Amino acid sequence: MDSITTAASVVAAGLAVGLGAIGPGIGQGSAAQGAVEGIARQPEAEGKIRGTLLLSFAFMESLTIYGLVVALVLLFANPFAG
Amino acid sequence: MGLSPFNLLFAELEVGKHLYWQIGNIRIHGQVFMTSWILIGALLTLVVVGTKKMERDPKGVQNLLEFLWDYIRDLARTQIGEKVYRDWMPFIGTLFLFIFVSNWGGALIPWRFIKLPSGELGAPTADINTTVALALLVSLSYFYAGLSNKGLRYFEYYVHPTPIMLPFKIVEDFTKPLSLSFRLFGNILADELVVAVLVFLVPLVLPVPVMFLGLFTSAIQALIFATLAAYYIGEAVEEHH
Q1: CATH number for A55
Q2: What membrane topology does this protein have (chain A)?
Q3: B84: closest CA of chain A, how far (Å)
């Protein structure tokens, strides 16, 4: 692999995870805010809220994970390595 | 392997180095099998010892196992629903316990003292093959759950609110195992890497809180994997009206 491809792949891998983490980060923040407000208002519903929160976190997190997949492909199974 | 930047920077991290066993035409990652067998053995011993002499007032190991049983039953019942959760509780419980024990075993047992010719022992779930196998099992089982409970009416799920959803639901069948496997793999590998890098930079005190954070996230990942598996199965057996 020539050095320009290496450099581009490494930068792209960093960007894939970094940019992909922004959206889910904001989303998880607002979801956690909602959950905390819900628990403060209704402490007896904590168990149910926690379960739903974890489930929705998992769905948001999968977006970052697609970025991680792209980054890992670029680093370890690069199709342009030649 | 195209390029491996970790191997260049930190000789100790050994991402992508494995102890290969040759079986026929297949090369398998031996270190994953060794740790999985050890951990499965430990789990089996615990369960057999705990259920050998059962008493009405649970004590010790039996108490722990009954607590786990209750926990898994509640998880399966809330996600899958009252009607069929009994059929799927053993599967969900096995997934949860195996992933939990793998994650914690990989972090807590000092594998470093066992030297291998190449590669190193660690959590089996930090290898992509393990997590893909588990995720594909989940895929197969939610198809089986849907088809066995509802027959061909299972495919109504694909066009349920409107037929416009059809392509999205089909894509979802592929992204479900993808995100399940990569979530677990990415989190566990990231935990191990962060601890390894910190140990490499500051070998004292500083890695300890990060290790505790790693234990917390790996427990949560086991819970999330089991919850999502149960949720997918519950989605497949749900009746639409």
Answers
A1: 1.20.20.10
A2: Multi-pass membrane protein
A3: 20
How many angstroms separate the CA atoms of B171 and B163, rounded? Answer: 14
Return the domain boundaries, chain B: 16-237
Question: Which residue, among A65, A70, A73, would best test binding to B if mutated, counting the most B CBs under 10 Å from its CB?
Answer: A65
Nearby residues of A19 by Cβ (< 8 Å), 6 or more positions away: A67
Q: Which residues of B touch A71 (CB under 8 A)?
A: none
Q: For chain A, how many structural domains are there in total?
A: 1
CB contact under 8 A, A65 and B228: no
User: Chain B within 8 Å of A52 (Cβ-Cβ)?
Assistant: no
Contact A58 B227 (CB under 8 A): yes
Tell me the shortest Cα–Cα distance from A39 to chain B, in angstroms. 19
Q: Which residue has the higher pLDDT, B233 or B23?
A: B233
The reply to whether the predicted model has a pTM over 0.90 is: no
Task: List beta partners, residue B27.
Answer: B22
Does A82 map to a domain? no
ipTM above 0.90, yes or no: no
Domain of residue A21 covers: 1-74
Backbone angles phi, psi at B127, to 5 degrees: -110, 130
- Residue in chain B closest to A3 (alpha carbons) equals B3
> pLDDT-based confidence at A11, cuts 50/70/90?
very high
**B8-65 pLDDT per residue, tens:** 343 344 566 778 888 888 888 888 888 999 999 999 999 999 888 888 888 888 999 9
Beta bridge partners of B20: B29
> In the structure encoding, which two tokens stand for residue B88, read together?
């799927």
CA-derived radius of gyration, chain B = 20
User: For residue B22, what are its two tokens?
Assistant: 């040759």
